[in-house]
Design goal:
single chain, 228 residues, mainly alpha, Rhopdopsin 7-helix transmembrane proteins, 10 helices, globular
Length: 228
């Protein structure tokens, strides 16, 4: 099987993502109106847009100067989908605005560290897949730290499961890229799995696991503030 052709096909990207987004929207439209539902619909729309502009059906020409900044934007925004939910429900922030004020800087930690690394050791990152690998390893470290410090599985199990899902997909991405750098071309096919988790499964999982949360403006009734 030609894994490269499948990987580059529209069936894979944006196909899988749009299927997951459609399922998440179907779940959300059957839940009561709330700020949470609005946010999750927005995150699903963000996932759909990401898949469009970074996939086989992108309206951007491949040689356009916009391709790189748009791709970087969606990488950061894609991770922000998780971080804002973890901050909102596991860290005890009382509003979406406060959660965003913490989640946005967190979303820039790994890109900034990666940017510094590529500047300091440009020769080591001449191979683009090494750039991917460093980003993935740094995200594994960040997500592991959040899992330990925020304790989402204890404070808010749905948010905790979403964080674990993200951690698993980044471990899979890093493992696949190590294999690809070692010459195992078949690992590109294995890379389809974390891609499906990130684009297709995550929005559906977020909609399904969070759908029963109370539509409140104060998260204290969902996830109590930790004792001082």
């Amino acid at each position: 099987m030609n894994w490269q052709n499948l990987y580059d096909s529209g069936w894979h990207h944006p196909g899988v993502a749009w299927l997951g987004v459609a399922a998440s929207v179907a779940v959300l439209l059957r839940t009561p109106a709330s700020s949470l539902r609005t946010v999750l619909l927005g995150l699903s729309a963000l996932t759909a847009a990401d898949a469009l502009f970074t996939g086989a059906l992108s309206p951007l020409p491949k040689d356009s100067w916009l391709v790189t900044p748009v791709s970087i934007f969606f990488v950061i925004a894609g991770d922000l989908r998780l971080l804002v939910l973890v901050e909102r429900f596991s860290a005890g922030h009382s509003s979406w605005r406060r959660a965003l004020l913490v989640a946005v800087p967190l979303a820039f930690v790994v890109p900034l560290l990666q940017g510094v690394s590529t500047r300091v050791w440009p020769d080591a990152f001449a191979e683009q897949r090494r750039i991917f690998l460093v980003y993935e390893v740094l995200m594994v470290v960040l997500l592991g730290a959040l899992l330990a410090l925020r304790q989402p599985l204890a404070r808010h199990p749905p948010a905790g499961r979403l964080l674990v899902l993200f951690l698993v997909q980044y471990v899979l991405w890093a493992s696949c890229d190590v294999l690809l750098l070692s010459g195992s071309a078949w690992a590109l096919g294995l890379r389809l799995l974390p891609n499906a988790l990130y684009y297709g499964v995550f929005p559906l999982a977020a909609a399904w696991w969070l759908r029963t949360d109370a539509p409140v403006t104060d998260v204290a009734s969902v996830s109590p503030e930790p004792a001082a």
